[in-house]
Specification:
heterodimer, A: alpha+beta, Rossmann fold, six-stranded mixed beta sheet, five-stranded antiparallel beta sheet, 18 strands, B: mainly alpha, MetI-like fold
Chain lengths: 333, 274
């Protein structure tokens, strides 16, 4: 089991309110991603759940049991840190065995579990090595191994991939998702990378300045962002946000349209402009078009589009994909 | 462009560094030479060639009893170092990993005790030792040396512990380690190089401590520093015997320092260059 509930959780450091007041329910077996810009309090929230920070007020329950005052060791959670935080003086084997040893488990049982975890994570040939002799990806796998051996109620990941290079990050992202399907254990994953959030999560929690802006499935957040912040944060490239006359015509303060929901034509359309930068990715092309009335609009189009810098074009937003926001920045239904 | 190192330059620097090293080492060398002279030779004046007599060494042991102060030195320096470490490891741990607003002040206050001239508290210390029957006891000497060196030990360990990433200790906590297990299985093994060099340096400091040793000990608990001082005695100065005693006093620590020089250098420059 791994049902985690936060009720009115508040955290302040000295006079600074880092987490004003958060309510959140995480279901058993869910893959939840906390996403937000740096300094939004997502890591603090994770550390509060882990017990590495004390809550200023509010309650945290795991499987219905109030753990607010309990030390990390008693909560039955495992954590993977951004810096891996492996024990440098221990071999890979001892690193993975450490939580089992602390739990006072029989050495033969420890051996069996460590070897099983190592096999799952392709670490069998590295068991005698020290962390210093491993690559970044292998170290990350050891950190995950150390977390899975003790069969925790939930896994907590604190930006685990941000120290890896781009291609390895992609591979590890898949491995972690795969692991979640295998283990079916609750996972809470913190990242500032919305691609990681979109690709891995069952449920995304978007945080901004310690507040939860929106909770929902990746596609839910993509289709129906509750406010301007979520609209701008989820999706890559970012949603085009337009204010002024074009918005007022549609009864809103700001309107938003995703780059993939703007059609482009050389002859006709709603907004005219010239292509500034054209980013050719092969499969896609991102065109940054300077328009006459609505500023610079990013358009996502197929890789084969024959448009380059300086071309005169017309843009048309798909009307059913337009997002409207009022002057508080909230979405208008 | 790298500077070209010519053979001439190399020779110059080699000779110069040997000269400086010899200059620094000369007092110790001359002590060793003098210890191998007879008393008459020793007072005759400067001379680098001794008659290679070992009688001083024999006399130092048979007449004055070298072994007892030697054992006192061992017990006092090792004992005070171990006790200081026992107190300082948890203290430095607390200050490095759960600092409060006052931590910096406490560290400065501890260091400030080293800035006071020792002679300033000689009388009260002497009286306290007399009244608690600690004068001229190994226990008393161990206590006083522990207290003298404790600030330095705490400071050194604090500096080492600060270099250990906090996330690793948090990982241990997440892995279910109690505070005790965290210190024993994670913190201490990672801090071993730092603890070892702190220990070595502290043994050397304690071994060479003379001010309190000479004033608070006599026949019973006198360590080697007090033993050497006793050669400038009412019977007059015995240069050769004094030199033999000094050589015997510094020999153990010199040998230990030689074998642990790598640890010591690493320890003393630790954290200086990031």
């Amino acid at each position: 089991m791994g049902m985690i509930e936060l009720k009115g959780v508040h955290k302040s450091f000295g006079g600074t309110n880092v987490i004003p007041k958060v309510d959140l329910a995480i279901q058993n077996g869910e893959f939840v991603v906390f996403v937000g810009p740096s300094g939004c309090g997502k890591s603090t929230l994770l550390r509060l759940i882990a017990g590495l920070e004390d809550t200023t007020s509010g309650h945290i329950t795991i499987d219905g049991r109030d753990v607010t005052g309990e030390p990390p060791a008693k909560r039955g959670l495992a954590m993977v840190f951004q810096s891996y935080a492996l024990y440098p003086h221990m071999s890979v084997y001892k690193n993975i065995a450490f939580p089992l040893k602390m739990a006072g488990i029989d050495p033969a049982e420890i051996d069996r579990k460590v070897k099983a975890a190592a096999a799952t994570l392709n670490l069998t040939n590295y068991l005698e090595r020290r962390p210093g002799q491993l690559s970044g990806g292998q170290r990350q796998r050891v950190a995950i191994g150390r977390a899975i051996v003790r069969q925790p109620k939930a896994f907590l990941f604190d930006e685990p991939l941000s120290n890896l290079d781009a291609s390895l990050r992609g591979t590890m992202r898949l491995e972690i998702s795969e692991l979640h399907h295998q283990l079916k254990t609750t996972m809470i994953y913190v990242t500032h990378d919305q691609v990681e959030a979109m690709t891995m999560a069952d449920k995304i929690v978007v945080l901004n300045a310690g507040n939860i802006e929106q909770v929902g499935s990746p596609m839910d957040l993509y289709r129906n962002p509750r406010n301007l912040f979520v609209a701008g944060f989820i999706g890559s490239p970012r949603m085009n946000l337009i204010s002024g006359k074009a918005a007022e015509e549609r009864g809103a303060t700001t309107i938003g349209i995703r780059p993939e929901h703007v059609s482009i034509s050389k002859t006709e359309g709603k907004w005219s402009g010239t292509v500034g930068v054209a980013e050719h990715l092969g499969s896609d092309t991102f065109l940054h078009v300077h328009t006459d009335g609505v500023g610079t609009i990013t358009v996502r189009t197929s890789g084969e589009v024959g448009l380059d810098h300086g071309a005169n074009v017309w843009l048309t937003p798909q009307p059913d994909k337009l997002h409207r926001f009022d002057k508080e920045g909230l979405a208008i239904a | 462009m790298a500077r070209a190192v010519t053979t001439q330059r190399k020779i110059f620097f080699t000779v110069a560094s040997w000269a400086v090293a010899l200059l620094i080492f000369f007092p110790i060398l001359y002590t060793i030479i003098t210890s191998l002279k007879s008393e008459t030779e020793a007072i005759q004046g400067f001379g680098l060639i001794p008659s290679f007599t070992f009688e001083n060494y024999v006399l130092v042991q048979t007449q004055n009893g070298y072994f007892k102060p030697f054992m006192n030195s061992v017990v006092i320096s090792v004992g005070s170092t171990l006790i200081a470490l026992l107190i300082a490891v948890p203290a430095a741990w607390a200050m490095a990993f759960s600092p409060t607003k006052r931590t910096k002040d406490i560290l400065m206050w501890m260091l400030s005790t080293k800035m006071m001239p020792a002679v300033g508290v000689l009388v009260p210390m002497y009286l306290i030792f007399r009244d608690t029957a600690l004068l001229d006891t190994r226990l008393g000497m161990t206590i006083v040396l522990t207290m003298i060196n404790l600030p330095i030990v705490v400071w050194m360990l604090y500096t080492y512990f600060r270099e250990i990433p906090g996330e690793i200790l948090e990982a241990a906590r997440m892995d279910g380690a109690s505070l005790w297990n965290e210190i024993v299985h994670v913190l201490t093994p990672m801090a071993v190089p730092g603890i070892a060099s702190t220990m070595l340096l502290n043994i050397i400091l304690a071994w060479n401590e003379a001010f309190w040793s000479i004033r608070l000990s006599a026949a019973n608990a006198a360590p080697l520093t007090a033993f050497i001082a006793s050669f400038s005695s009412p019977q007059g100065l015995f240069w050769a015997k004094l030199s033999a005693a000094s050589t015997l006093a510094i020999a153990p620590i010199l040998v230990m320092g030689w074998f642990s020089q790598r640890q010591l250098v690493r320890g003393l420059t630790f954290g200086a260059v990031k």
